[in-house]
User: Fold these one by one.
Assistant:
Number 1:
Amino acid sequence: MREVYFIKQNKEKWLGIEQVIQGKIKKNPDDLSSLYINLINDLSFAQTYYPKSNTTVYLNHLSSQIYQKIYKTKRVEENRLIYFFRTEVPLLVHQYRRYLMYAFLFFTLFTSIGVLSGAYDKDFANIILGEDYVNETIENIKKGNAVGVYQSGSTWGSTIGIIFNNIGVGAKLYIYGIMGGVGTLFALLSNSVMLGSFQYFFYDYGALKDSARGIWLHGVFEIFAMVVEAMCGLILGASILFPKTFSRFNSFKKGFKDSFKIFLSTIPFTICAGIIEGYVTRHALKMPLVVNLAIIISSLAIIGFYYFVYPSVVYKKINNHNHDAVL
């Protein structure tokens, strides 16, 4: 069958499924399951005869959306919150995984700009970090306490302030995406350049090792979450700029809904980062190096697995289950 005829034959059905996904047409769980199985058959046919076609990409996307609709509509035995983190967010991260890659590429580029700027302009750190902070940190380095700035204030007071500040930064990275993603990139540029110049500043004063022992205790969760929040902003921006088969408004609604769920998933990591910074980082140089490394590596393993590895695991598991169900 020619692809044009295949599209013409099924176009109305697919548009109807879009209406269901958008909530304009209500279906019970059994009807949704029938639609899904029918759509999977179309997808299998397209994958066989038009493997590199946009039709196949479209049907794959539609199948993912209707599947999520089924599992949101039917009752799930597990706790809703557990389902959110265990299944819903990983599926969304997998669906938008290229935006996570874009966010990390921009983060790496912008951080490198900060490092190079600090290397070629010795006053750059003063401009970015502030003279008072720089002078205080230099004095701490001379005293052999590179992370001294984290030892001021009470533990619980610092923790609360840090958590709210980091959530605020993450919210800006996300919400600024409404400006077509440009606002998100600008916010990411500002924070990444600051990080790059900050790290080079310690390198320049021979305290990079000591600073890393402290900063990355909380920095792994904090910075990784920041990049995921930038990913959410890029998704939001793309939903406005590239509506695809949806109207621009419906594309925005869908993009906002999906990206907001991913953004919410970063909150626990941000809170953990604040707790570590408030309670643990101040003791970084008194701790055995092996403890520092254990916290840093385990933090990286946890958040890296959740956003890079686990989404593919969930997606493959569900796809295999669906394939078996169809057979």
Note: The two ends are 23 Å apart (CA to CA).
Number 2:
Amino acid sequence: MLGLEHDFRIVDTRATLDPDESSVATHGRDISPERLEREMLQAGIVRAVASPGQRAAGRSYLRANNAVARLSIDRPFVAFARLNGPRDSGTGPVSAVRNLRAERDDHHTRPDDVEQYSYDDRFHGFTLAPHVDGLPNEDVLARLEDADLPLFVHAGREFPPEAVETELLGYDLPIVLGSFGGYPLDADLMNETLDLLDEYDRLYVDTSAVRYREVLERGVLEHPDRVLFGSGAPDVHPNVGVMEVLTLDVSEDLMARVLAKNPARLVPALAEGADV
């Protein structure tokens, strides 16, 4: 695919780096760090947040997180640690009953893990996919609040905005909902998430897999400082996500905010000249 031509500095808040055979097998893809970096450069992306792909059930993310941090050295990647937990992310009565008995296992994230990641200068934030990895216990979430680093959350039909509000938004930390909280392609949930931005000052959204121009433009126009560019690479080529923003009917100033200024304000390691 040809490289895009544009005059914007672009950083990406949503990329997955599969660092080992387990992650590759889970996702059924094998994209090397070199290929991911090359595709980013083709899209004009100069730096990207990277976190591990889904691990097999019962496996800890500790080794995968450390591998992503190691692979990010001397590459334009900013490592985020992926978390998991024993609690069911569903909103129904069955989930509520399960959570009464939810006990942390050896492979689940513990408060000490969060503290270690927080003070390790290789990591700049956290990633959470509740629908596949479960929700951490409250003591882990409290430690995340203490760390005050960005938490990027995979939200959508299986972990909708109402669940995000119930489980996470009571904690005082910056939270970014992937795909406007409406993955896959649920415009109603995306609009519900945008409504939540009016109520929660530390809530943000990323643009990955938001294929509706009207929804994207609403987000950018109504909340110009809280929409962050995210490509969703390598599931899609980053060129796709970049073009979706570049073709919006908004000013160049607003595009520049989404593509670089907003992400760099939330994740300083994405800023121009940052030492990572």
Note: Residues 82 and 127 are 5 Å apart (CA to CA).
Number 3:
Amino acid sequence: MLKLFKLLSNKRLFIMLIGLILFIAVMGFTLGPRTSLSWPEKFVKDTVGFVQYIFYKPAGAIAGFFEDISNLRNLQKENEELKIALAHYTRDKARFNWIEQENARLQKDLDFTNAQKEQYNYTWKIAHVISVNDDPVNRTIVLNIGGREGVKEGQAVHSVEGLVGVVSHVSNFTSTVKLLTTMDARDPNSNGIAVTAQGKENEVFGVIETYDLSSGTFQMSRIEDPKPLAKDDLIVSSGIGGVFPRGMIIGKVLDIQVGEYGLTYTATVKPAASFTDWKELFVVFEPEAEQE
């Protein structure tokens, strides 16, 4: 008994003994069958939960703040990328539309030249319009082909719609075209066009040598017999005189009047060519001109 008191008088051993007894008691209590938590466990869990709530809420707010900043940066970056993509799309769309229009126009030019080859033995050399002189007295255009490609003065220039003019000056790389809208019977340097109505059994001949600026029409004069001629008849060059090749489209008849002295008749002809917004034109080469 004395030894036991001496042993208990050692504080360290006493504390260890009490801790061991409590540990065994807790182990036995927790390992045993139970349906609910004990009050110490509840106390500990509530304490831990309360501490977690205190620290978690501000920590979550701070983390959410930095996450929102990161999201804003990502959103700004995505907006910049979308703006660049939209700019590229707009540019590519405009380029695609331009290419599509050019392909359609060139296909139309090709169909026209193929159709003309079936009618006449002419060579149609395509040329691009590089400049336009809008002087109402002397309207001219400049093409990007010249003497190097065999172009000569006096050759007819035609669009897909109709006759445009005649080559007036030629250099090595360009050609100047005098438009039909400058035709004036009072001008000694203006060449008239011998014309006829296409597809008529009884041929009708006349001369176009005047363009009326006010009405935008040609005056077909020197018609001896107007009976075969009617409104909407297609007027083409007859080839007489050798200035313009045969079959060049001039326009359609609007009406027919008695001439100035009552001996001949005059027809008003609406031009087939628009004389505006040209991209490509054709220089007409006759077989005789190619052999020279």
Note: The radius of gyration is 49 Å.
